[in-house]
Amino acid sequence: MNDRTNEFAFKIATANGTGSASANGLIMQAIFRMGVPVTGKNLFPSNIQGLPTWYEIRVSGKGYKARTPVFDLMVALNSATYEKDIQEVRSGGWLMYDSTWPMDDKLIRDDVTYIGVPFAELCNKAFGGVRERILMKNIAYAGALAALLNIDRDVIAELTQEKFSKKPALLESNQKAINLGFEYVKANFDVPLPIHLQKMDETKDCILIGGNASAALGCLYAGATVGAWYPITPATSLMESFKGFCQRYRVDPETKKNRFAILQAEDELSAIGMVIGASWAGARAFTPTSGPGISLMSEFLGLAYYAEVPAVVFDVQRTGPSTGMPTRTQQCDILICAHASHGDTKHICLYPADPKEAFEMAVAAFDLAERYQTPVLVLSDLDIGMNDWMVPKLTWDDSYRPDRGKVLGAKELDNIKTYGRYLDPDGDGIPQRTLPGVHPKGAYFTRGSGHNKMGAYTEDADEYQEVVDRIARKVQGAKNAVPAPFIKRTKGATMGIVSIGGCHEACLEALDELKAEGLPFDYMRVRGFPFSDEVKEFLEEHEMNFVVEQNRDGQLRSLLALETEVPLTKLGSVRYYAGFPMSAHHVVSGIRPHIGVPA
Amino acid sequence: MSYLAKPKVHHPSLKPNALGLTRRDYEGALSTLCAGCGHDSITAAIIHAFWELDIEPYKVAKLSGIGCSSKTPAYFLREAHGFNSVHGRMPSIATGAGAANRELIMIGVSGDGDSLSIGLGQLCHAIRRNVNLLYILENNGVYGLTKGQFSASADFGSTSKKGEVNEMTPIDGVTLALNLGATFVARSFSGDKEQLIPILQAGLQHNGFAFVEVISPCVTFNDHEGSTKSYSYTREHMIEVVEADFVPIRSEITTQYEPGSVKRVQMHDGGMVNLRKVAEDYDPTDRDKAYAYIRNCQSEGEVATGLLYIDENGKDMVEQNDVVDAALTNLPYSDLCPGSEALAKLQLRFR
Lengths: 599, 351
Known about the structure:
heterodimer; A: about 600 residues; Pyruvate-ferredoxin Oxidoreductase, domain 3; Rossmann fold; 7-stranded mixed β-sheet; 6-stranded mixed β-sheet; about 20% strand; globular; B: alpha/beta
């Protein structure tokens, strides 16, 4: 650990509802603006005020973005969690704490350097009012960190200026607090620490954005006009963001009326019903939810599958089962989303790995839903959805036009002899759809009960089977239209690592670590379901594949075995499902024992 | 049960409406319900109401949930799109469809199981949102398709065909709707087409959620002595408190009423409803008094019918949400996508 410039991690421990989120965001943004790649993970409680919360910042000039479990510096500002927080500092690391109150001797580690800054005392002297003192204490540590880590003060000044340009009083007190922390540390300690920042030029083509915001942007750009939802952590900010974007871009400039409708439903059953109703009527409609919502939506998803109505659902996964841990991440809905509802069903699923993909896949989801006339589920997770990620700037192709699929309009219906809703005119299993209110010849009866290819009620064995067999063929056909898997090959590899969604960054870093140890692996990340032939081929061509995922039961592994018929003996399993984002360490230590190397 | 194509026969003497269509043009497939089912009479009234209002069938969306009543949209308006959704969830389908295309004329048909048990939540919230929809609750007090269990509207003390006594208090759709702020509340009887047709027509022209409960006896499972939803019980106990007469926009008002006994309500789409008070002291524009009157009837064992409450000044769902006047489904994509330049500019905020 010689030169740790731009290659370190630190963690900030506070209580929630005390304003620490703005300080943490400020620090992360400042590092980003210094041109240094940075990742932030917010580990927060399902609570409004007073419970422990942590924010982890990883600085990596090399560009690694996965969570790291090793911390060089701990900013311990919550005495309730001191004991645990101190244990997380690496040997030879640092711990900054509020020295207004003495640190218990029992909590002193010999191999850690303690940096005491009397934040409360400083702020009590400088500010009046209880609330302001607490808030400013949490801004003061940003100043202290700036001195410890060599964060550019001009960048911090610029950021506070931008943030509080319309609130001069707040600007002044924030700057004052930052200076308090900065000056105290500068005067009392040898700074900067060996772990510190140096300007780079690695972030100019990037943005910092969360996957819920980017998915909302995808919905906006895809032309979605109806959003229905029931508030649920961690999906709430998707619809809140969509609302914000719509208010900015979707208000008719003359009438000031909305070119969108956002409906807050009474529950998820209703939210998905609204989406299906709106899609049936011809709008692009979506609902964001999380695992408990998927459970409730399952009956309706079966209807949309069988009656062939498009619908777009975002499942921002959190830990289950049941209520689980609402503010912790997991990939535990892979199986339920693939087959939600009773009866034989299979749904198109997309698996974004970061906010940029969440944007792109949101757009793709609407195209696929309308092309295949079926629900499409986009599975991100709390880590992707709610944390700010450094990703390349989002781009948009102005020649894009929505793929509305096979919709017959008034002109086409004028020229048609008889219309049959569930025929297969092109042999691809995809029927022609009509919208209500357009043409008398387009009428049909949409139903979840048994129906024949003309859309009429049936209990006839052959008529029923003809329709369900065609639907199976149709959905399977989507395997070539969903995003292709991401594949990265390493010379000499005979084994593969397979992952999904938010495991990606941890896997990329693990590949490098393993390679450095002389253990080359090929890598595949699945991005869509039904799986394309490429997925099967990858699994078959490797003597062993380690399926890396964030759930207890190896759901991706099961789904791969079920769909590709690759024997389970060729599919090893690496799982991490404690609720925090995965790190490369979990991947590497999960694989090692299987290949005769100690974990 | 099978799907039966109904022969489309035009009798030369059938009267055409302003569109040149006869009532036959407003029919659907042949009903597969039991002979004498109240629901079939309601279907006939629906057909008549649409025909007389000169509504083009294809502009209508027919929605339903699950149950005997929910099958009926197949039996009228064959040229309209229908959606037989899942049990109790028709209101959410209507909400989404209405938000997407406000120009659709929506009719929802439900039953007492669909509306008052499994779908009670959705019904309540659709009322609160004032979704622009004619919602017909065909109330027979019983689960027919599963052969005779009590529904939530079965009256306390009434008996099932097998002789079981219902020990639970009923959920009454009319007072519930009034309580929730419904802007149009009516109750009628499948056996009284004279009363039902004008109510349906007014409901179709109402701007917002028009709740119409129609007592519709189940001849197979709930038409016995001891039932309070039978033909004979309903005939004996229904009292009409308001007589509604719907006058379409182009028609001349010909019916003569005693001066002072009539209240005229201008409907959103231009028609007019004349409300003639049959019961003294009844005011169909005063929610609290209407509620009290209906509750009082209930405790006396009587069933108040008629267009019981109307308010034409409420905002419907799309108005509450400030949605543009055009159907969202008709907006060109260029009005929806901000384009690449806006995206580049917006991302300055994410740095």
